[in-house]
């Protein structure tokens, strides 16, 4: 063992365990109470040594650093209100669109994390890590334009990590996403267990849906460009464009083909890790070192209580945790190894108020730095080189999609033209539906009031947009040379 390895194994000032903390708390109640409660022993005052790892902060807590604070670009310090903040250059925003594996609840959708990189414009660069069931509704409520949902990194092929993909991609095309969708993910031990195979058969499953929507202007929006990387590769690069690199490595999650990701934004010097699902592992500790925000999956380790709550044997919960997942104790251990500026847990089952303290205590057994749970949906973290701030998004129950912007239809760097022609449908209604079905339709004159009647448009009329006129009607002026 090298000297460095020996030093890494030595306890540090951050190693105050939960048991020692409780021991210190016992001292604080005084000898009289300790004598009156069976099993409680008094302890010396010096045993209570919980210290803020970031330095003394009287009145500032024992786990909060000076850099945990809002800044002028944060318009509301208490909640994030979508559509009200332009993400400045060199600022990262992380939003937990979904945070649970199972069961989905009104508080938690299937796991998905949105990472946005600010450019000082209304539409930042976006990266989606997993797209679990129900998460797309939160993306829409967060005013992410459907055509701009792209660059989706799937950690593995459990359905709670990609279930909204077959639902989302046809509607993205229908909503103006006329360019191919880009999806990234691991291969498997055999071709049938990889990302390409899943996408191919997902599209076969959606054959009726795709043909139906081909009656609309969709361009190439139904096409999916799949980047399938070698699931065994350690720290391989699966995305490298415009100063952003996304790396991946394998994790132990019962079956081959589960991956973790790290995004590094070179221009801003900011980084993000999402472990995906899996057992606590050495590679995540290695490749997550020094990251700004480290997000791990996690599960509470109380199998006996789970047994009492849900009726299944405790051994079943133990087996499930111990072959699939990272218990909170281990998540805290990974945080200690990687030393992020902020640590978070996503993909967890919210256990209710009674177990919140226990959940946090399990994390704190190894990690005493800045920490939060990435749920319930939607928690938001803003990150700069100097500060970090977290809030919950304020979402209406019936949020409408973001208003259409003709600039979404342009290629990167393309100037706004005087006119935009929408794509011609590839398979119009009259080519994919038999006449007898159309003959069953009720004459519209029978249900329209006379002064509201309009002649149905049932053949593609050819539609052209005047983009500047559209923008000016919304109070947006665009320079002629842009």
TrEMBL record:
Enzyme class: hydrolase
UniProt entry keywords in alphabetical sequence: Hydrolase
Highest taxon listed in the record's lineage: Bacteria
InterPro entries recorded: RibonucZ/Hydroxyglut_hydro, TAT_signal, TAT_signal_bac_arc
PROSITE patterns: TAT
Statement: the UniProt record of this protein carries the keyword Hydrolase: yes
Name of the featured protein: Ribonuclease BN
